[in-house]
Design a protein that fits this description.
The chain is mainly α. It contains 2 helices and no strands. The radius of gyration is 44 Å and the shape is rod-shaped.
Length: 110
């Protein structure tokens, strides 16, 4: 082999190694990109499902608390009677204020 053949061999080896390494790295990058895209897609679906479940649980708990408050309020109103001592006290207090207001109005009119 002569000197020009060695230089061509070196250029040929350089070109083939560069091509092989470039092809390998391109395939590796493509595989990593495909794997990353698949992972992103899976995570996006899982996170969306988690958000839906979280919202469903929170809305359910909120609805349960509201219904419990409404039921307790309705039960307490149903048990309240007009002959309840506290209710009588309030009723007497209001009628006393109304009668006292009538006396003040009659006095001012006279």
């Amino acid at each position: 082999m002569s000197a020009p053949d060695w230089s061509n061999l070196t250029l040929h080896l350089e070109g083939s190694l560069t091509s092989a390494l470039g092809h390998y790295l391109d395939n590796w990058r493509h595989n990593m990109t495909a794997a990353a895209n698949a992972l992103d897609k899976t995570l996006a679906e899982e996170n969306f499902r988690s958000v839906i479940w979280y919202l469903a649980v929170m809305i359910g708990m909120f609805a349960f608390i509201i219904v419990a408050m409404l039921v307790s309020t309705v039960k307490s109103k149903r048990r309240e009677h007009s002959n309840d001592p506290y209710h009588q006290y309030i009723k007497e207090d209001w009628t006393a204020q109304i009668q006292q207001g009538d006396v003040v109005n009659n006095f001012a009119a006279a």
